[in-house]
Each structure stands twice: as structure tokens, then as C-alpha cells.
Specification:
heterodimer, A: Ubiquitin-like (UB roll), 5-stranded mixed beta sheet, 2 helices, globular, B: alpha+beta, Aldehyde Oxidoreductase, domain 3, 3-stranded antiparallel beta sheet, 3 helices
Chain lengths: 81, 128
């Protein structure tokens, strides 16, 4: 299955792109996707523990099972206000 | 509970917001908060901040926070404006208004809203 990953804030600088697509086997989790993305973009590894993850418009944890066509957002801690 | 959410690159026009305020006869408290850009960020002098939002998700997350407020306190309305793009020092990046029957719930709900926003709403800033 194919999942689209969007990067926000300075994650775009670290990856040098706004989004990418990742091929995963069926039943893959958000945590497995995150690991695959860090392998593709090693600079994200230093932010591993503070990375926030959303599928669509909702936050999800690493155990969330992804579906084909999901749109995932990865970003650093938020700073509104 | 009435809500109004605006995410905008335009300056916050408080005079207009105040002129448009609506409150029923039982409302005794209007709390307004301005979040202002400081001239220093992480120990460095700055002239402005550049805000970016994942707007679709930000709107959804604000909606969840508004729903949580409605469940907990007898708030009549919440209005929130957040700037995106460049905001200069001394200008507001955030304007929040909470209207409730009494000051305790108005202050508490306003504080809750801003705390939750700072944890969950996908908005980021970069010094300029």
C-alpha cells in the first residue's frame, strides 16, 4: 500500500521536501511508517522522540494501523500563540 | 456555544471585533486575551515571527478544544483569531475572547483554550 507523508515547519528543511510517498506492506503501523521515513531522511532521526504524528486531521500513536491512501503528517512540537 | 475561528495573514482588527461582540443578558464576564510578539526569542533579538499553520488540521483541533470547553463550562461564546505569516514585534499574533456568566469560568476556559492550543494545534513560528 502507498501512504503519503507531509512534513511541516522545519521538518521540511530537514527532508528538503514538502511530502513524500512510502510503500508499506498491508497492516503496517504508524510507528513502522515513521521508522521507514527516518531511514529515508536520516536527519529526522534526531527529532524521533519529539515528532508528532497525525493521520488526516487527528493525532494517532505508533500502534495505529494504516490504510492504503492515508495521508500522514509528521511535524515538530507545535508553537501557536 | 457559539464559536468563531479565524486563521488569517491579516492584522487583527480589535475595534471591529469589539463592535461585533454579541452577548445575552445573563452574561457577566468577557475575557479577552492578546498574545503579543516579544522582541526576543530563545535569547535572540528578533523583529518578527513567521507563523505557519496546517490549517485543515488546526481547524479540526480547535474544534475539539471548543467542544471540550462546551462540555466543561457554561460558556456562551468563544472567538479566536490566529495570525499566519509575518507578525511584527509588539503586534498580536493571537486574540481570544471568552464570554460566560461569571469571571471564574471565563478565565478558566480561556486559560484552558490557550494551554490546549499550545499542545495540540499545528501552528509553528520562526524568528525573522
Amino acid at each position: 500500500m502507498t501512504v503519503t507523508v507531509k512534513f511541516w515547519s522545519y521538518f521540511r528543511d530537514l527532508t528538503e521536501c514538502g511530502e513524500t510517498t512510502v510503500e508499506l506492506t498491508g497492516g503496517a503501523t504508524l510507528g513502522e511508517l515513521h521508522a521507514a521515513v527516518m531511514e529515508k531522511f536520516p536527519k529526522l532521526t534526531e527529532m524521533k522522540n519529539s515528532t508528532l504524528k497525525a493521520v488526516g486531521v487527528d493525532y494517532q500513536d505508533d500502534n495505529y494501523v494504516l490504510n492504503d491512501g492515508d495521508e500522514v503528517s509528521l511535524f515538530p512540537p507545535v508553537q501557536g500563540g | 456555544m457559539k464559536t468563531q475561528l479565524t486563521i488569517t495573514p491579516d492584522p487583527i482588527g480589535e475595534a471591529t471585533l469589539v463592535a461585533e461582540r454579541q452577548l445575552s443578558e445573563n452574561m457577566g464576564a468577557v475575557v479577552v486575551f492578546h498574545g503579543i510578539i516579544r522582541g526576543e526569542e530563545a535569547g535572540e533579538s528578533i523583529t518578527s515571527l513567521d507563523y505557519e499553520a496546517n490549517e485543515e488540521m488546526a481547524r479540526h483541533q480547535f474544534g475539539l478544544i471548543f467542544a471540550a470547553i462546551e462540555e466543561r463550562w457554561p460558556v456562551e461564546s468563544v472567538r479566536l483569531i490566529h495570525r499566519v505569516g509575518i507578525v511584527s514585534v509588539n503586534e498580536p499574533s493571537l486574540w481570544v475572547e471568552v464570554i460566560a456568566p461569571h469571571r471564574a469560568e471565563a478565565f478558566t476556559a480561556c486559560q484552558f483554550l490557550i494551554n490546549e492550543m499550545k499542545e495540540k494545534v499545528p501552528i509553528w513560528k520562526r524568528p525573522k
